[in-house]
């Protein structure tokens, strides 16, 4: 299947053509016109299943965040098929979109075949959703397989167009990782490329409205309809640079805001019910296995971290960052991760996480400046995880946050030039954050950090291909995002070979 066909599946002609194959559904008392304005999605695949998601909204941008939906439960029929024309139905059922959950639907489908491609759709009140493609993970014994996975981060609506999501979809990935800053909380301002609605998001209604505005973007909808997503948040899904219960600026209402942000995030992502929030808590870190090829350890480096040392930015001579008690993961998540790395039998162990891990000295000359919001502000915590990666067969860290492409070898010990290599870090630039960027390379930072092999300041994403023998990473870039429909090209490619920690230019 090529992207032109996938794009067509999102069109009205395909939608109308497929309605006759669905079973009859009793119409609600008041017909819902166009309830699938926010698209569909799938996520967290296992060998026998996947999560299906949609959210009903007939007027998606309403200020109350409820999408113009009636205050009642709406039955939603769903189907999963082995073919895109839905002639071979694998599973079907009925879910209930409830007003207290903003009429979202999370269906945990089981009983599917491992390592298979499937198609899915929803229907309610005579209206049918777009069709999405998803796939299950291979069985645990499967090693000799291939995985094309793309990962992305930092999609700021007001900074430009989400063309990079469309280009990502055109690469036909089997899986997509989103590493945070899926949406931004800021109020719009004069000069924005696209206008966001409402004030800065602090309430449940505000977060729901903001998520809905993002979800109306056709390029983002296409990416979700193309492959299952594994998602984790960073800071902007709640507030810039928050750390556990500490906001960026003093705010007596921050925990109420955090609970609202968590609720809206769960409602709008294809997550399993184990991630359903309980007040200010949400279990987001988890492990997804792709056969015997890759173990994905998805981390949460916001909810359990100590407050940033010496402030949030780049600091020189900040002794507090060396405090052995400081943690970015929290003790429980750290034990879970290290135990998972030790017990993994996968060929590749991949950390999907938020902030720069390998270490960057941002200051020219003998002084060293490190960014306190990254793992550089939590040195002891970082070194424990790096030591764990060094013990695995092939350790890979995937990162977002910094709005630039980076590729680096990971020293086992931070800030020690002679340290051996624990694994590699691949950092994706933003989808739009920072607008177009430029072709200027950060020569100073490259000179100060010999373990760093590549930098680019354009927008885009990273495409990877995993096999039993090697990992290939293509850094995809767009020349502009302030206008729509930019092309994507590969700025650089790297290969990591089995049992050879370190990057090789392809």
What does this entry show, briefly?
This protein has 506 residues and is an alpha+beta fold.
Kindly describe this structure.
The chain has 506 residues and is an alpha+beta fold. It has 2 domains: 133 residues, Immunoglobulin-like (Sandwich); 275 residues, Purple Acid Phosphatase, chain A, domain 2. The strands form 4 sheets. Strands 9, 10, 11, 12, 13, 15, 17, 18, 19, 20, 21, 22, 23 and 24 form a 14-stranded mixed sheet that branches. Strands 3, 4, 6, 7 and 8 form a 5-stranded antiparallel sheet that branches. The protein is globular, with a radius of gyration of 22 Å. The two termini are 28 Å apart. The N terminus is likely disordered. Keywords: Hydrolase, Signal. Its EC number is 3.1.3.1. It holds the Pfam family PhoD_N. InterPro entries: Metallo-depent_PP-like (IPR029052), PhoD-like_MPP (IPR018946), PhoD-like_sf (IPR038607), PhoD_N (IPR032093), Phospholipid_Metab_Enz (IPR052900), TAT_signal (IPR006311).
